[in-house]
Amino acid sequence: MTDEQSFDRPEETERGTDPGIERAAEPAATLAEAPVGDTVGTPWDEGLNGDNAAFAAGKGWDSPDAVIDSYRNLESLFGHDRAGRTLVLPDGDEDAAAYDALYDRLGRPDAPDKYSLEEPPESPADGALTEWFRDTAYDAGLTDRQASTLFAAWNRMASSRIDAAQQAHRTEQDETEQTLREKWGGAYDRKIGHARRAARAFGGAHLDALESAMGLAPVSEFLARIGEAIGEDALPVGRGGEKFGISPEDARANYEQRKGDAEFVAALQDTGHPGHAAARAERARYIDAIWPQR
């Protein structure tokens, strides 16, 4: 054996290559390297009762960390800082009690008469309408702020519509007066007086309905005829110096009616009749009214 070989063998022996020498034991694992839990492979939810284990499985939790994360998320939604401000939604439209509870939590007043509605001085809403609005707002679950906002908006809208309708009626009156003045000529004041007298006698809802159906101008003409008939003799001329104000159409109609009067015709044709001169003068006035431009 050479010297070189003699130095190699002891080295191999120290490494445990010599079967006659036992190897030193490996050091034991430290505490930090030991697995968590008493027993390797133990389920994290072991020890839970059946209901809790089923609940955890249904939630999909697979570790204690998952449970704690879920609780922290829940606390962030319904924590102490949100106490008294959470809502429970009704299960369906038919759950009236749940809706009442929801409306109350949102701020609906205790009763319809608790709404603080403010009526403008010129509000078109009367007491009955305001009471109806309160009841309807309460049934709909409106808060006081919502109801007040809606009521004020309705008043503004209704008032503007009334103003527009009144302005339209004034415009129609102006246009009707112009039309009737052109048609009646010098008889306008007398005829409009007849129309007003008839309107006072027969006015009201029926007259409003008639105006809506016919229009203001036709109704005015209709009333003028009625007022003329009930207020004075149907013949508006030939009465001892009365001003002869009549439209051509009425003059023609009255003259035709007058020609059916035998006494008038006799006086007109008989030069010796005591009323001959008056009949001729009356006929002349009719002719002047029928053909005012001749």
Structural notes for this entry:
By secondary structure, this protein is mostly helical. It has a domain of 58 residues. Helices cover 60% and strands 0% of the residues. It contains twelve helices and no strands. Helix 10 runs antiparallel to helix 12 and helix 11 packs across helix 12. The longest helix has 41 residues. It is rod-shaped, with a radius of gyration of 54 Å. The N and C termini lie far apart (171 Å). The relative contact order is 0.04.
Summarize the structure.
The protein is mainly α and 294 residues long. The chain is built from twelve helices and no strands.
Number of H- or I-type helical stretches: 12
Distance between the termini: 171 Å
Count of individual beta strands: 0
| Overall residue-averaged pLDDT value | 75
Low-confidence stretches: 9-16, 28-32, 34-38, 232-244
Sketch the topology as an H/E string, one letter per element: HHHHHHHHHHHH
